[in-house]
Amino acid sequence: QVQLTESGGGVVQTGESLTLTCTASGTGLSGRCMGWFRQAPGKEREVVATIDENGHTSYADSVNGRFTISRDIAENTVYLQMNDLKPEDTAMYYCAARLGGLRSGPEDFPYWGQGTQVTVSS
Fold first, then answer.
1. How far apart are CA 42 and CA 44, in angstroms?
2. What is the mean pLDDT of each run of 10 residues along the chain (122 residues)?
3. Dihedral sign of CA atoms 99, 102, 105, 106 in order
4. Beta pairing, strands 91-99 & 111-112
C-alpha cells in the first residue's frame, strides 16, 4: 500500500511558475510508475505527465515543453515543474501511482493523493 501527499499548489498569474511535490509513504516508489493528473470543474480527469522507474516520461500535448516531471526515488518524491502557466491550467492536480510501466489512463492508477489546487489568473 502507498499513501500519496501532494503540495505546492497555489494562485499565480499567467506566465508564472509553480512546482508541485508528491511524497509517498507506506512503501517506496521503486518499481512504480508515477503520474500527475488534473481535473477542472465540469471536466474529466486527464493525464498531465507520467514517469516510470527508469525515468522515461510522457506528457500531454497541452503541457509538453512547459511542464517537467521528475522523481527522486531515494526521497520517495515526484515533482511537477510547471512553467509559463496559463488560465486553462487551472485545476485540481493529483498525484497517482501504479506498479509497472508507463500508462496514461486514470483507470490504470490504483493509488491517489487528495490533490492540490492550482489557479492561474489572467
1. 7
2. 94 98 84 93 97 93 98 91 98 94 90 97 94
3. positive
4. antiparallel
